[in-house]
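--- STAGE predict ---
source: upstream dedup step, 1 unique chain passed
mode: sequence only
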Amino acid sequence: MRPGLTTVVAVRSPEELTAAFRERGLKITPQRVAIFRALHGNTAHPAAETVYASVADGMPSISLRTVYQTLNDLAEMGEINALDLGTGSARFDPNVGEHHHLVCDRCGSVTDVHVDVSGLEPSDLRGFRVDAAQVIFRGRCASCAAGPG
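--- STAGE serialize ---
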């Protein structure tokens, strides 16, 4: 794969996530289904607060705790990735395919990017077994780089 391209393995459909929750004996609620819908097709790496805001407009009874619990359940199931990118809050990535991230230090946007890390290895592992590597590039997105300041 060429650098800069990503393999997108998007979050499954709301119906598929509902079935996956049922298979694990997790309760299906209208709030959870609304969260599944908010994630479907989302490439913005949303924070739980962002998911909450998008769902709460149509469902005022939903709590931020429910959003966090559902996102954490999905991450535990391998349906999404929980990310700590140093942006101030946990972000959730519906793309579970192998990829890395560009993080804007100004606006906090997160973008998927593919990087060949096959040759990247620490010089002294000291017996540590590496299972995965994640590269985070920090800087300014095109919009912030073009703006004032």
